[in-house]
Design brief:
mainly beta; five-stranded antiparallel beta sheet; 130 residues; 8% helix; three-stranded antiparallel beta sheet; 8 strands
Length: 130
Amino acid sequence: MPNPAKSWREIPQRYRLEAGKCTKCGAIAFPPRLICPQCGNREFAATKLADAGKLLTFTIIRVAPGAFEDQAPYAAGIVELDDGARLTAQVVDCDFAKLKVGMRVRLEFRRVSEDGAAGVIHYGYKFVPE
């Protein structure tokens, strides 16, 4: 029987920020896709995403969904990485009043959640101001 924790860790886009780069037009797809959204090609090469970029837009979540109630208020943003890929994630370790569209941020892996009594810890990426 496969080890769920091991399978979870081995999802390339989750822990290695691995995307698919179209071999025909060079478009980056994250998470990886079977068909290029730009040109329809079906061949991709694995590529690691850039770990920094600029904040395109953000919002402050003050009334959070149940699973995130203990984290509210928190900031969530869309960032265009230096290689052109766009990701959505929390923006952490900052004063919300100082968040600005266009500011530089970098990706960091952080603890996202913990599962019940088993204590399995899930990690993911978050943005931090540079």
